[in-house]
User: Fold this.
Amino acid sequence: MDAEIMEAEIVGEAGNLPAVTSGRLPDTVDVNETLTLAARKMLEESGRTGTRDTYFSVWTSFAQWCVSNGRAAAIPTKEGNLTSWVAALIERDTPPTSVRRAIAAVQWMNRRAGNLDLDDRPAKTILADHRHAWAKAGRETKTSAPVHLDRLEVLLAACDESTPTGRRDRAVMLLGFFIRARASELAALRNRDLELHDGDELLVVTKRTSKADKQDEGIEYDIDDPTCIAAVKAWKADLAAQKADAPGLPFFRSVTRHGTFRKPGGKLVKGPNGKGVRDKSGEGDGITRQTVNALVKAAAERAGLFGEFLPDGTSNPAYVKTLTAHGLRAGAPTELGRSTDMTVEEIMEALGDWKSADVMGKYVKRGRRDGGRSGQDRHRAAAMSQLRLDRADRVQHDA
Assistant:
């Protein structure tokens, strides 16, 4: 008697690709259309770590919503499930940027599993309406307060240079500012990525991977700021003293309350059989992007930036409370907008880390206004100044 083939959903382990449910198995399988185990594993682990972790987390939320509403959290994802979930997010007053990320995460998971046919147009249609309503109501998406030079000095002063933790935190914040780094990019730095030249008066830092570097060719930054170089040298001395300066090891390390680092490969991680094993890759010895964010916030707390007044005496606590590690990346364009007459295009060309003029424009305008000037570029500001009713040299004509 032939065994009955039952239709069922295959549920993979956490972190693996959700299985494609297909009903009955075909009579024959074309080996040319199948993946080897190695290829499947590489696809499962594809994508940048930060993106992958974020999208897996979003997918988990989507799957939990589906299950709680009697729906199948499977791939291929049904258009109705995606659209209905997006509607539920909007009903919970989720910010438009988070809804957009939710749609992208579900699409990403489907593409990784080989499904390119998920129609997300209905979901994006209701997202567009939500975004319009959000803007019409005058609501803004929270962004980090930029760390311009004055604010950077305040943060640095809150770090105790007599301790390894304080010296590390100073180096983190200075490098974040000068290489316009995201928190994940700072955490990814290795000892080999920082080299001193010209009698230690020039520091060359290489970002091996970056969101803007699609080909992973690496981006180099030349830094001649004495404060930054001194901070990096001080931290390098800590690494050397604890024999943690091998080229392939993380540059920024977790520091215990005793001022020591974990030994290379010393982090306990979950092994294939569920038991604890020692991580031999060296990855586990470095700080995480969450640590970078936490140390910036902690420095701001110690510096009193979360208090009622800013260092210049102006009251704007809500602005500073948004401070995160991303404020370090936003610092350079904000400072150039604050202290120079450079246009957005000139600053984009000078820094080279942004492709979007809209994003750059927001940083620059914020810097100009923080410096007590119009947020507009000098040509437009000059033109608008000619339209003032109280302009002394205005020539009056007959009405």
Observations:
- Residues 269 and 276 are 5 Å apart (CA to CA).
- The chain has three domains: 34-136, 161-287, 292-384.
